[in-house]
Specification:
Distance between the termini: 40 Å
Number of strands: 19
Largest sheet: 17 strands, mixed
Order of helices and strands: HEEEEEHEEEEEEEEEEEEEE
Pfam families: DUF2807
Organism: Psychroflexus maritimus
Domain Putative auto-transporter adhesin head GIN: 58-233
InterPro entries: DUF2807 (IPR021255)
Protein name: DUF2807 domain-containing protein
């Protein structure tokens, strides 16, 4: 009996040590991201807000960086309408290689009266990537049925999607907020990031979270979920088939009433 208690106590101590290590890892990761932001040359908006228009070619892959706020607008033409403080206009970087459009800035944009990019496009998108504090809004989106999303480094993505398959990845304090529905959803969140899809209906889903990340899901038929290292996956009740795997302080649970 004494030996059994000792084994249990050792397991509890090992579990606490593991959790403490991961919490330290998360804090170090957040500190590293903050330090990287400090090392990047930053700029604030100055001068009057002006509007500029830029022509662009067709694209189906989108990459956004450096603190812009972007409104994605389906259209019959491709163009960028920039509404921003005067000093930010000359910092705008637009690069196109093949089917990929990259929008960036020479400096990381912080506060501004306006730093809005209205991005009009006429192609079906297959991939969207955001990083470095970008805030992307896409209330309606053209796609071929499948879409890949990647949000990193404190960026935020709000998107409505109706299609066959959606794959999403968040890391380093970034977040994705999703509405709509899909037959199949695949999501991976790490390093204190978040994925919010409580109002997004997936017929089947596969989710993996670690290092303090949070995932919220709404699944109809089947869920395969894995949470480790202080991460949390929450889901609706009544899922027909659920397979879960937790270790190192990870949590998978249904929403509380």
């Amino acid at each position: 009996m004494f030996k059994l208690r000792r084994i249990n106590n050792l397991k509890q101590q090992q579990s606490m040590i593991t959790l403490n290590k991961f919490f330290v890892f998360i804090l170090l990761s957040i500190s590293l991201v903050s330090c990287q932001d400090m090392m990047v040359v930053q700029v604030e908006g100055e001068g009057p807000v002006v509007m500029n228009e830029f022509e662009i070619d067709n694209f189906n892959q989108l990459s956004l960086h450096s603190g812009w706020k972007v409104l994605l607008i389906p259209s019959d033409e491709n163009k960028i309408v920039l509404e921003a403080n005067e000093n930010l206009v000359e910092l705008l970087e637009i690069e196109q290689k093949g089917n990929r459009l990259k929008i960036d800035s020479e400096k990381l944009i912080k506060k501004a009266d306006s730093k809005l990019i209205q991005l009009y496009y006429n192609q079906e998108l297959t991939e969207i990537k955001t990083s470095s504090g970008v805030y992307l809004i896409a209330e309606d989106i053209k796609h071929s049925g499948n879409l890949n999303l990647v949000s990193t480094s404190g960026s935020k993505l709000e998107l409505s999607f109706e299609g066959e398959k959606l794959a999403a990845e968040t890391t380093s304090g970034a977040s994705i907020h999703l509405t709509g529905s899909a037959a199949y959803l695949v999501v991976k969140s790490t390093s204190g990031s978040g994925f919010e899809a409580e109002t997004f209906l997936a017929k089947k889903a596969k989710a993996k979270a670690n290092s303090g990340a949070n995932i919220n899901l709404n699944v109809e038929e089947g869920l395969e979920a894995k949470a480790t290292s202080g991460a949390i996956i929450k889901h609706n009740s009544g899922i027909k088939n659920r397979v879960k795997d937790t270790n190192s302080g990870g949590t998978i649970k249904a929403y509380s009433n």
